[in-house]
Design goal:
Blueprint: E1 14-18, H1 23-30, E2 36-39, H2 47-52, E3 61-64, E4 67-70, H3 72-82, H4 93-105, H5 113-125, H6 143-157, H7 173-184, E5 212-217, E6 226-234, E7 237-243, E8 249-255, E9 259-263, E10 268-272
Parallel strand pairs: 1-2, 4-8
Antiparallel strand pairs: 1-3, 3-4, 5-6, 5-9, 6-7, 7-8, 9-10
Length: about 270
């Protein structure tokens, strides 16, 4: 869609900021097909995001109205919470366990093609070997399908960049059929209004509502820090109120895992998990 003078205006207020070759963007895009797709440059600067006043520079970024969500793990979780009619997660304990395993299966390995080949082999010869349509033998795709399939689908999308013999459909017919089924049924997202929680008074960080804080990735992205007033702090999420460049109030949401929270004027509170 490219950059323009104004941010996109869509009926449900949902926008995914992404670029086509982002593997983690593919992960979020699969779960949110009814959103407005706002394509971003592969490298900085990204004028659309600068208009939001964001310092965070990783893709994808997800917006629902004035609420901005960082990190695909949080994006997927919020889609499950806010759009229950299109819920993909399972209630069975054993199925939720599998979903959690698959959630982390692709992290840290998107740069290793050999690992991806092993993943194709794994799903072809184990989970899909009995002819099931979906990962957990459900009637429709579940979060287990989304979490497992995004790195495979991303790799398939890079077909022109890979040798044709690397992960051929003839060798992995069940995996390719699975990818096709997921692609064909990822247009069922529903919309609802976002809600914001409060600040947990028992949180070990001891930071109260209204405190000016910074949030930023705990690894190499730590120089890109977003600041604002703390409005929500719970076990797995932090939310700050900030301002866009035109003065509009935004709510920036980040997961606790993998992010640091710093009270402005004091030393870093450390990585909170």
């Amino acid at each position: 869609m490219g950059s323009s003078d104004k941010l996109p205006s869509v009926p449900n207020g949902i926008v995914l900021f992404n670029y086509p070759v982002s593997p983690f963007g593919r992960r979020a895009e699969h779960r949110s097909r009814l959103c407005c797709y706002q394509e971003q440059p592969f490298i900085l600067p990204r004028p659309d995001l600068e208009k939001l006043g964001l310092k965070y520079c990783r893709i994808p970024i997800f917006a629902i109205g004035r609420d901005i969500y960082l990190d695909t793990r949080l994006i997927l979780r919020k889609l499950e919470e806010k759009f229950p009619d299109g819920r993909l997660g399972n209630d069975k304990l054993e199925d939720r366990f599998v979903e959690k395993l698959l959630e982390n299966a692709g992290r840290g390995s998107s740069r290793v093609l050999g690992v991806r080949e092993n993943m194709f082999e794994f799903f072809e010869t184990t989970m899909l070997a009995d002819g099931r349509k979906w990962a957990l033998k459900t009637e429709k795709p579940s979060l287990a399908d989304i979490e497992a399939i995004w790195p495979l689908d991303w790799l398939v999308s890079l077909e022109r960049s890979m040798p044709p013999h690397f992960v051929p459909e003839e060798r992995f017919p069940k995996v390719y059929a699975w990818i096709a089924r997921v692609r064909a049924t990822l247009d069922e997202a529903k919309s609802s209004a976002p809600k914001t929680g409060g600040v947990d008074s028992g949180d070990p960080l001891g930071i109260g509502a209204g405190t000016q804080i910074e949030i930023y990735p705990a690894d190499w992205g730590s120089e890109h820090r977003d600041s604002g007033q703390l409005v929500a702090l719970v076990l797995d999420e932090v939310t700050v109120a900030a301002r866009s460049r035109d003065g509009a109030e935004l709510r920036i949401h980040a997961p606790r895992t993998g992010f640091r929270i710093t009270e402005i004027g004091r030393r870093a509170a450390g990585s909170s998990n």
